[in-house]
Structures are given as structure tokens and as C-alpha cells.
Amino acid sequence: MLDRKILTEIIADAPVPMYRQLANLIRDRIACGELVRGARIPSEVELGNTYKISRITVRQALSELEWEGLLERAPGKGTFVRRSAGRLERMTRLTGFGENMAGLGRKAGYATLRAGEETVPLEVVARLRLPEVRAFVVDRVLLTDGRPVGAHLSYLPLWIINGAPTGSFSREALDSSSLYGTIEESGVVLSRAEEIVEPALAGPEDAKKLDIAEGGLVLRVTRTVYDAEEHPLEYVLITYRSDVYTFRQQLYRKDLRTAP
User: Fold this and answer.
1) Average of per-residue pLDDT across 112-124
2) What is the pLDDT of residue 137?
């Protein structure tokens, strides 16, 4: 599998399509700050010449990044890294909060309220198929540029924690690291997630964590994450401020992979 962390060129015979390699390369340059908000990216011709790929391939990559909200096109001027909008958009790929914010040119932060083994509700036991009513609980406030935008309550099977490097799931470590990144560093591969998004009213705890009025509208996300063998890895409840967070999804009438 192609490693996005070290991708600096387009490999013609790689299993990843060339347009996706280019999209990953540009996405990573944005995430690491090499391409800042508002920066103009090279033209289709320049990108094609640099990476020795066709303009059609370049255009497909840019279209993907534009749909994700990372790029915006200005007719007659070029393509630019999208400037920060008033509302944050959560992409519909399986990505963590830190990845989403980096892709939007924003700084993600975390305030970990608790992280440790606890007795958990029976719903969590069922979702994670646990052998007992104990799991590892991570309770964090999600911050964007220092401002609270989400409350994150994650339940993880204990076998993930037991196989992780010592201290990687401590409160101190989780205050400065992506949870999904930490899970993957433990050798666990995230594959897919089932997710439900619905409106809700902020309760007293939500209001305190998110700095909003009790009874205000929030977005409630319930997600179960699986590995490639369909083993549940995480059951998480996330509450987002509805005034700063939106979801965007692309829908198809038919499966494009099998369309004639």
C-alpha cells in the first residue's frame, strides 16, 4: 500500500490510481502547512509536467479535492487552497477530527477530561461485542483554534489499549494527539464505520463542554468503527455545535463502479 506520509512522486504501476496519488500528495502538503490557506496551487499544465501525468488525471485529482472542500477554483485566476469558512465541514471519509481540521487549514486541539478503564453501559458492550462490561473510555472536548466545537466520548476494547505502547492512551498524550492516529500506531487498521447523524438539544453537560446555552441545537453523531475483518474497534458519541459544524455528502443514483 502506498504510504501517504512519504509520497513525493506519482508511481505509474502503484495499486493506487495516479489521480488519487496526486490528490493525496496535495492533501498532505495542505495538512503539513506547506500550502497555506489562500495559496495558489500550480496549474493543471504545471502539475502534469512536474509529475508526468495527463491533464485529465490532474483535473480528476483537483475535482476530488474541490469536492472535499480543500480547494476552490477562481475562473481566469487559477485554483487555490480554500480559505477558512465560517462553518467547519466534516467530510464523509473515515477521518479523525485532527485530519479534518488540518485539511481545512485549521488548528485542532483536545482537552481530555478522562481516559481510563471503566464499567460501561450494556449498549456499548453489545456494540463492541465485549466479553465483559469493562472498556477504555476517552472523554474529550474537541477544539478548533482554541474554541470548543465538539464533545467526544469514545469507548475502546481493552485489547487495543493492552497492545499499545506504554502511555500512548494517557490523558497527557491524548491532549496532543489524534485518537485514530494513536489507535493505528498500536498496529490496528481502521477500515470502515457505520454512522448516524441527528439533531438534538444540548443538555447541561453539553452546554458546559461546548460553551453554549442549554437547550440549544447540536448535531449528535453515533459511530461504530470496524477493521477489515469486521471486528468493532470503537463506539463513539460525538456532539457538535450546530452553529460551526456541518456535514456534506455526495450521493450517486447508481454504482459508478459497475455503470456502463
Assistant:
1) 96
2) 98
Q: 179-182 long-range contacts, Cβ below 8 Å, gap at least 24?
A: 179/96, 179/138, 179/140, 179/152, 179/154, 180/95, 180/96, 180/99, 181/96, 181/98
Encode pLDDT of 201-223 as tens digits: 999 999 999 988 888 889 999 99
Domain match, 111 and 237 both? yes
- Report the DSSP pairing between strands 245-247 and 88-90: parallel
Scanning 53-193, the segments in alpha helix (DSSP H) are 55-68, 97-103, 122-128, 158-162, 171-174, 179-185
- Going by DSSP bridges, is the β-strand pair 108-119/88-90 parallel, antiparallel, or unpaired? unpaired
- Among 45-59, 77-91, 164-178, 232-246, the minimum mean pLDDT is found in 77-91
Say yes or no: 158 and 227 in one domain.
yes
Q: Are residues 158 and 214 in the same domain?
A: yes
pTM of the full structure: 0.62
d(CA 201, CA 106) in angstroms, rounded, equals 26
Q: Are residues 192 and 101 in the same domain?
A: yes
Domain stop point among 57, 81, 105: 81
* Residue 31's CATH number: 1.10.10.10
Q: Which of 48, 81, 114 is the last residue of a domain?
A: 81
Whether residue 70 sits in one domain with residue 92: no
- Please state, as a whole number, how many other Cβ atoms lie within 10 Å of the Cβ of residue 30: 22
Tell me which residue range forms the domain holding 137. 88-247
Buried b (16+ CB within 10 A) or exposed e, 142-178: bbbeeebbbbbbbbbbeebbeebeeeebebeebeebb
Question: Would the pLDDT of 136 be above 60?
Answer: yes
65 and 149 belong to one structural domain: no
